[in-house]
TrEMBL record, chain B:
It comes from the Bacteria. Pfam families: ABC_tran. Residues 3-234 form the ABC transporter domain. GO terms for biological process: L-amino acid transport. This is ABC transporter ATP-binding protein. Keywords: Amino-acid transport, ATP-binding, Nucleotide-binding, Transport.
Length: 637, 234
């Protein structure tokens, strides 16, 4: 390799300043997320969506209103308008779910995001929109032969100014004092006569305002498009995990750090710059799991009202019924056509995927928001083995999931250091990183074009044979995980779920237990992915994408997270519904998002949970007060 | 009557905690709610201010039934609550803690200012800008009471104000409570410590396993050593 003269020093300075300018928007959005979380304890996944709407609304307004005043007025007006939308969302949706488990809140705002993605395309169209340049900041400043856009300089100044304003707001106003008090103990604030409802609403409005402002300020720099929500939310999650959720200073420092890592990472690993950010995040998490400026959170209080019915293994009658259902499912090829069999195979594969996540969530109490990573890794594992090594199918199917296993082992190790919403955010960030690698590392993964031609061998090629294969594996996996639930390992894992502290006190190694569960779950997902690669004959980055992770979550919640068989039922119902829906409408995200919100608000216990409740109600009405155990037990605090 | 509680029942999930609790507090009166650990004193207070979700019964404060009102409305109506676990805001300074409690003046209740409260609790005056987390237990207890008084309540529910405090601080606490009484604040104070209760109270109720099993003046209680010995640990 020949050494080339390195770029001049000025280049690095400019690169640094570009990083600082990017940090401004990131900081605005991240601080908004932090403020909202601090008081309401909701990780607002829809924060990226508000950022995106802010950009779209600002685009429309700046197109209509001319002049300097028109431009800057539009930016601010857009932020206020979106804040108003935020207020409506808070009053209509979030107020209903403040007392729901945190997972449901994350999921509801997730659903909202999906709806927004379709809505902005409906309103503004699918094309990228290039906005106006900012009046007064159109040119560039010369710095030793390098150009710095003057708008970047404006943003560099704006970041610290906003930080200062927020500091004054929180330290010097009564509202700020109340918000800080509520961040610590919101019940006590109510017991001092403060109306929490309006405090929450105002906090949400401020947070959304910041997100929308961040989005609006991007239009002179970047094109506005309908995928900018996911990109920013992943970065924001990384920022708040590094900086510490709830800390505004932390959001600022981490935003600068992440932006600089991105700016210089491009120079070091042009293809996979996100790796650098990941490494820094991993280091921070090991040294300070609660972030640079955060503080250790007390173990989350179990939400009162969360009822748990004691689990029991199936009775012999129920076992027979399950077996009968399996036999009936196995007769499908006798009367169904090829299309139905392909759909059947897909459903069976998604049963595997759903039960793998259900195991982690319901048994381990760890809600992964990026479970598709391990599904997709399993798929890529098969594709690599089949296409590059040319191994036979059966070997690929056995070894392919190991890639999911390895991914789960590495990421799981870091993820289980955290719990609750941090865990969810981190798993999401990991999945997004794996996705970017698959997307960017074209020479190995084929990038967006994927890897094609992964077809099953002759013995499994016909739809009926493949269906039997998928069904058999799904049944095997489901039974294996069910056995695990009622094994000593399962009991230990459930103990860590119900109380990590007490489990540790009786000698359970909580972290290792959770890590093991994570690896089991990831490997199982990988098995699903491996079959999926053969079903589709190809592998794409979408196989590890966020929407697939959401699918898994929805399947589990739809089935019922507090039940043992929720995963299976949820997968069957959801996947069938989903395949049908996609064939019926172009606005599948809108419908799906609305559906998720509806589940969270109306059926928080899922299908199986509801059936169990109905069955119990019938049981308890016949012999009055039959057994105390059969009644849902509500944890007192 | 300032406060009337009738047939108050409370549950935590399937557990029935309070059984038909009933008692009364007159205008300007100091009433003690005595009972052992776990007898239901704190749950009674928490139920009155609406912090226990599953509750039923009548709670009439200044002639208005507040039993179904949300917590902040009950408190804004002039019914102050000082929790047992202190629950000061540890990140906030003394002055900021007081600010959280501040409510507008009330016609029928004595009004308090920061300066008046600093005169009542001189220790607090010396640490106006200290974060609540760096105060001693006694100082925190004073701050909780001062914080509730910032809301200008006409009645205060004081949950075990003497718990875990040194005798010297307990003396200051007695003085402070008597000053509050003199200003015209009605007070319900829950206590395990009969000696402390006797110093401040006009009347007393005894609660045992979620039921009121005695009500009368302090003199009447002293005349019944059997009840005292059966329900209170001395």
């Amino acid at each position: 390799m020949q050494l080339q003269p390195g770029p001049p020093m000025a280049f690095y300075v400019v690169q640094f300043l570009t990083g600082l300018a990017s940090a401004a928007s990131l900081f605005l959005v991240a601080s908004g997320l932090s403020i909202i979380f601090g008081v309401t304890r909701i990780v607002n996944f829809a924060h990226g969506a508000f950022y995106m709407i802010g950009a779209y609304v600002a685009f429309t307004l700046t197109e209509r209103l001319s002049g300097t005043f028109g431009f800057w007025g539009s930016i601010v007006a857009a932020a206020f308008a979106v804040a108003l939308i935020g207020v409506i969302v808070e009053m209509v949706l979030l107020r209903r779910i403040y007392h729901a488990p945190e997972l449901f809140q994350l999921l509801a705002t997730f659903g909202l995001t999906l709806m927004v993605e379709d809505l902005v395309v409906l309103i503004w169209g699918p094309d990228d929109l290039v906005g106006r340049r900012a009046p007064g900041f159109k040119g560039a400043v010369d710095f030793f032969g390098q150009n710095i856009p003057s708008y970047d300089l404006f943003l560099i100044v704006l970041g610290p100014v906003v930080l200062g304003i927020l500091w004054l707001l929180f330290q010097r106003t009564r509202w700020g004092v109340l918000v800080r008090a509520a961040t610590q103990d919101r019940d006590m604030v109510a017991a001092l006569g403060v109306n929490q409802k309006w405090l929450f609403t105002s906090v949400f409005a401020v947070g959304v305002f910041l997100a929308a402002l961040g989005g609006a300020l991007q239009i002179p720099r970047d094109a506005v498009h309908h995928a900018m929500d996911l990109r920013i939310i992943v970065e924001v999650f990384v920022v708040v995990v590094i900086g510490g959720l709830g800390s505004i200073i932390g959001a600022f420092v981490a935003a600068v750090l992440v932006s600089e890592l991105n700016a210089f990472g491009i120079l070091i690993f042009p293809k996979i710059s996100i790796i650098l950010v990941f490494l820094v995040m991993a280091v921070v998490l090991i040294v300070r799991p609660w972030g640079l400026f955060g503080r250790p959170e007390a173990p989350a209080r179990k939400t009162p009202g969360l009822t748990v019915n004691p689990w029991r293994p199936l009775t012999s009658n129920e076992r027979l019924a399950a077996l009968a259902a399996l036999v009936i499912a196995a007769t499908l090829p006798l009367f169904a056509g090829n299309y139905a069999l392909t759909v059947g195979s897909e459903i069976a594969i998604f049963v595997i995927f759903a039960v793998s996540l259900h195991f982690l969530m319901a048994v381990g109490g760890l809600a992964s928001f990026g479970h598709a990573a391990y599904f997709g890794l399993g798929a890529y594992g098969v594709a690599f083995l089949a296409k590059m090594a040319g191994l036979p199918m059966i070997v690929c199917l056995l070894l392919g999931p190991l890639l999911g296993c390895m991914g789960a082992a590495v990421f799981g190790f870091f993820a289980v250091q955290l719990s609750g919403v941090y865990f969810a955010m981190l798993t999401l960030a990991f999945a997004q990183i794996v996705w970017s690698i698959a997307f960017q590392w074209v020479s190995v993964t084929g990038g967006d074009n994927g890897i094609l031609g992964v077809w099953p061998e002759k013995w499994a090629a016909s739809p009926s044979h493949f269906y039997w294969l998928a069904l058999g594996v799904a049944a095997l996996v489901t039974v294996a995980l069910r056995v695990a639930v009622f094994s000593p390992f399962g009991y230990g894992l459930r103990a860590t779920r119900d109380s990590a502290l007490r489990s540790e006190a009786i000698g359970v190694n909580v972290k290792r237990m959770q890590w093991t569960a994570f690896v089991i779950s990831g490997t199982t997902a990988g098995i699903g992915g491996a079959l999926f690669a053969y079903l589709k004959g190809s592998v794409f980055p979408d196989n590890l994408g966020i929407s697939l992770s959401v699918d898994a979550l929805v399947m589990v919640l739809l089935g019922g997270v507090e039940t043992v068989s929720g995963g299976v039922i949820g997968a069957i119902v959801y996947k069938a519904l989903n395949i049908w829906l996609v064939s019926q409408t172009d606005l599948s995200k809108l419908v799906l998002g609305g559906f998720i919100v509806l589940i969270v608000v109306v059926f928080p216990k899922g299908i199986v949970g509801m059936l169990e409740m109905l069955a119990q109600r019938r049981k308890s009405t016949s012999p009055p007060g039959a057994s105390l155990l059969a009644k849902p037990i509500e944890s007192a605090e | 009557m300032k406060l009337t509680v009738e047939g108050l029942n409370s549950h935590y999930g399937p557990a029935h905690i309070l059984f038909d609790i009933g008692f009364e507090v007159g205008e300007g009166e100091v009433v003690a709610l005595l009972g052992r650990n776990g007898a239901g004193k704190s749950t009674t207070f928490r139920s009155i201010v609406g912090l226990v979700a599953q509750r039923s019964g009548r709670i009439v404060f200044e002639g208005k039934d507040v039993s179904v009102r949300p917590t902040h409305e009950i408190v804004r109506g002039g019914l102050g609550y000082v929790p047992e676990e202190r629950r000061i805001f540890t990140d906030l300074t003394v002055e900021e803690n007081l600010e959280v409690g501040r409510q507008p003046k009330r016609l029928n209740a004595p009004s308090w200012t920061r300066e008046k409260l600093f005169a009542l609790f001189p220790n607090l005056a010396e640490m106006r800008n200290r974060p609540g987390g760096r105060m001693s237990g006694g100082e925190q207890q004073m701050l909780t009471i001062a914080r509730t008084l910032m809301g200008n309540p006409s009645l205060v529910l004081l949950d075990e104000p003497s718990e875990g405090l040194s005798p010297k601080i307990v003396e200051q606490m007695v003085d402070a409570i008597l000053t509050m009484k003199k200003e015209g604040v009605s007070i319900v104070v829950s206590e395990q410590n009969l000696h402390f209760a006797r110093l401040i109270s006009d009347r007393a109720y005894i609660i045992e396993r979620g039921r009121i099993c005695f009500g009368g003046t302090m003199a009447e209680l002293d005349a019944r050593p059997d009840i005292r010995d059966a329900h209170l640990s001395l």
